[in-house]
């Protein structure tokens, strides 16, 4: 029997985390939250399974975690580009939600049109779409979507190098993450991404005084022994 929206909301209430709720309240938010972390939500989403109808219902909720679960349980075979565009326009009021929407192993990156969408969004005039586009590129960097070859990714690396400091702050963050993901794919892209990261230098991201997050250290990740040995062998 399929899980219902009422059952999902009941589960969220039962598993509410007061510490997470207090953290949520420190910043102005348009959505309510039960303070539940993404790891627990992912586990619950796996229990629910793929359910497009439930995902659509959860997306209409004013509860952050319900929307996240909607993104996690949706069916990539049923999701349309029109749905994705509508979600960007009407549902990403929370920056946290935008991050989950396009990355975090959520459904969008698993759709057959994800790469075409990312290509369009990184060139959009809308900052939210650019942010989501680069987040999608990061997710897709772990896969092998048709058409996402080295030539395209090298062009993206160069574009990131030239424009990242002039971008909206959250687009900068997504670009930085995409650069790291792209640079882990193979030796050619790793070398190009490291060169770009060196030219870029520190990327300014303000996570707020109540947040311990720091901007991603792309060079540290791309130069790690694990990545270097994987891509170049022990002699690198």
Could you explain how this protein is built, in words?
It is a single chain. The protein is built from 14 helices and no strands. The protein has 236 residues and is mainly alpha-helical. Helix 9 runs parallel beside helix 11. It is globular and about 50 Å long.
Short structural summary:
By secondary structure, this protein is mainly alpha-helical.
Largest sheet: number of strands, sense, barrel closure? none
- Written as H for each helix and E for each strand, in order along the chain, the element string is HHHHHHHHHHHHHH
| Total beta strand runs | 0
Helix content: 55-70%
**Poorly predicted ranges (pLDDT <50, ≥5 residues)?**
none
Category from helices, strands and their pairing: mainly alpha
Oligomer: single chain
Distance linking N and C termini: 54 Å
List the topology elements.
Layout: H1 5-14, H2 18-25, H3 38-48, H4 52-59, H5 64-73, H6 81-91, H7 95-102, H8 114-121, H9 127-140, H10 150-163, H11 169-183, H12 187-200, H13 218-222, H14 225-232
